[in-house]
Amino acid sequence: MILLSTEHTIENEIQTLHQLFDAGLTHFHIRKPNYTLQETKAYLEKIDTYFHPFCVVYYPELVNEYDLKGIHQTSQNRNSIVKNTKSLSTSTHSITEFNELDSAYHYAFLSPVFPSISKVNYQNPEILHQIAQRTNFNTQLIALGGISEKNISEVLLYFNSVALLGAIWLHPNPIEQWKKCQNIVLSYSV
Fold first, then answer.
1. Average pLDDT of the chain to the nearest whole number
2. What is the pTM of this model?
3. How far apart are CA 24 and CA 7, in angstroms?
4. What domain count does the chain have?
């Protein structure tokens, strides 16, 4: 199970993030699309170095410097695949796009699976119907968009795992919500 950061900094974000790591978070995408390289470094500097190996960023040059988990490439950067990295991921918005990915990608988000919790009017009701057309089994398929404890069980029937954003960061108790979702995911991995 993957957690994405919010696009913009929120109150007590780093403190909450550390609590999430303590609650079992092992895969965190620093998704701050407007952050420069220096701003991303500053964000990483706030995270305890013990948790750096759980973090994924957009800047390849930071992976070794901070001992990070890997790199996430946007669809616009996909033409310059960074090989021999710890973990390489990208985002897709249709099963056709996912099927065409290079095998260098360890996993890819497919979104939005359900109406987004954090983005207004961001949805694609066709995605779940397209899953039967999956032909790429070299890359892990990760559901993103509108994922919450209410639909994780359904999603895990078709996807390798899930990525959360709004279900955690917009919840009044993000730590308890993370634990609920994590327990559901873990019940499918046994």
1. 91
2. 0.91
3. 22
4. 1
